[in-house]
Amino acid sequence: MTVAIFVAAYLLPENVPAIVFTIGSLIGVRQYAEVKQKALLADFLENGATHHSGWRAFGVSLLCVLVVFLVIVAVVLVALLLNPDLVID
């Protein structure tokens, strides 16, 4: 997939917007995942598992981003407390 993107980027003119590559990559990865995992998901659901909404995954990802952000803020604050002469420009 990556090789195809680089070849396309080399062959296409420079005025082609970058969003074309982003959308193409997203579609390609989604199709690849669907082909590779469709049977696994069907077996998973047949064994009594439940399929949850994508919004649930989105909420979990937002929670993870919040945790990472808070850890970064805590590290910066501790660094500033331990070294008050530290200047962030």
Task: Explain the overall architecture.
By secondary structure, this protein is an all-alpha fold. The protein has two domains: 1-51, no CATH class; 53-89. Helices cover 75% and strands 0% of the residues. It has three helices and no strands. The chain has helices at residues 2-11, 19-46, 54-82. The chain is flat, with a radius of gyration of 22 Å. The two termini are 40 Å apart. The mean pLDDT is 88.
The total beta strand count reads 0
Global outline: flat
**Secondary-structure class:** mainly alpha
What is the CA-based Rg, rounded? 22 Å
- Domain count: 2
Low-confidence stretches: none
Number of helices: 3
Brief summary of the model shown:
With 89 residues, the protein is mainly alpha-helical.
